[in-house]
Amino acid sequence: MLDAVIIDDEQDAQITLMRFLQMHSPEVNVIGTANGVVEGLKLLNQKKPDIVFLDIKMNDGTGFDLLKQLPKIDFNLIFTTAYDDYALKAFKYSAIDYLLKPIDPLELIEAVGKAKKDGKDNTADSVQSMLELYKEDKFDKIAIPSVDEFNFVQISDIIRCEASSNYSIIYLQSGKKIIAPRTLKDFEALLVGEGFFRVHQSHLINLKHIHQFLKTKNRIKMTDGSEVEVSRRKKTLFLELINMRKF
Questions:
Q1: Count of beta carbons in the 10 Å neighbourhood of residue 241
Q2: CA-CA distance, 4 to 25, in Å (whole number)?
Q3: How far apart are CA 127 and CA 129, in angstroms?
Q4: For residue range 10-57, what is the model confidence (pLDDT) as tens digits?
């Protein structure tokens, strides 16, 4: 069993989440609820939950305010929010899980399963990264999970990402490779607005790390010497990007 607490100033939201957990994730046992920052801090000091479901906007402050006041974060964290895209981007870049209200039961099941699988050892680092991103409006780093840790990497240092079944191999400027248990589609969703382009079903590249385009081979040579194939379907758009110098 996983012990959980819910911190949300909307009682209806608390009740709905508890009902969904009972129906779809019976391994989660709700051991307490709170309706704001002050009550939430008291609850977390009294209980030692495995998972905290935390709202952002509450009557006496934000979920961020609560996290900043905790001496230690030793639980899995799942935000439950109807907040703006800016906050969601901070969550995504720091690998913090979240559920959009109204909560989808299937997404809840997935979030709980991910919490069970990933454990809570890296939550504190992810929260710190998320708070810095949200405060500074500077999305220059991304949290990349590997088998037993999170790697916080400068986006500009990523040369390319390669699909490998349900995993992705991330190639860095230093020569390091990270095998991440996330699909290439997941990384594409995060990085396409940061100067990355998916040139092939198996390859997502950082346009700033292109060294040459080998026309006769229909391949791109990257700054680390690797070569990546450009699919026929993506070739026209890729050439337009080069000609327009959109990177």
A1: 17
A2: 11
A3: 5
A4: 999 999 999 999 999 999 999 999 999 999 999 999 999 999 999 998
Distance of CA 146 to the CA centre of its chain: 13
Local structure of 57: helix, strand or coil: strand
Give span(s): CATH 2.40.50.1020, the chain.
Answer: 153-244
Pull the structure tokens for residue 70: 């905790």
Does CATH place domain 2-136 in 3.50.50.60? Answer: no
- Bridge partners (DSSP) listed for residue 153: 142
Chain centroid to Cα 58, Å, comes to 23
- Short-list 185, 217, 222, CA closest to 206: 222
Domain 153-244: state its class.
mainly beta
Number of Cβ atoms within 10 Å of the Cβ of 37: 22
Q: How many residues are there in the chain?
A: 247
Read off the pTM.
0.74
Whether 200 and 229 have beta carbons less than 8 Å apart is answered as: yes
